[in-house]
Design goal:
mainly alpha, 3-stranded antiparallel sheet, DNA binding, WH-like_DNA-bd_sf, DNA-binding MarR family transcriptional regulator
Length: about 160
Amino acid sequence: MSASGDRRPPGRSPEQEALTDLVMRTFRLNGLFLEVAEHMARPAGLTAARWQVLGAVLREPLTVSGAARAMGLTRQSVQRLADVLVADGMAEFIDNPRHRRARLLRPTAAGWDAIAVIRPLQHAWAAHVTRGMGEDDLRGAVEVMDRLAARLDDDPWRPA
């Protein structure tokens, strides 16, 4: 600690320290979210990872690459999960009118049924977790995360 009481490493700005704090809390929050997601997905016959992939294609069918981009995951990991969802009857691949080889993934009736099992649990959990939090605070957090994600998308430090 410096004489002024600053506990930052030398040469590190307050913004860099704040980013480190945010990253550490994001790691913790991610772990907590995944733990709860596993618990909520289990009654529907899903895992958190399978629910995440199925959730990515609820609004519209996507290619595996498109779903991977939306979730910030590798195409290979999403492909494995998509294949399991298809094998389990929760999702299906359909022809893509824009690309012959890159088929689109969408939920089946069984996939929608699984989501219907999870939704009430998710809604009750979200109501509990957000109690006493303002929408503006939550939207502000989303905005900061979106801005950081946009910067990281173009970050030269990311591996190719």
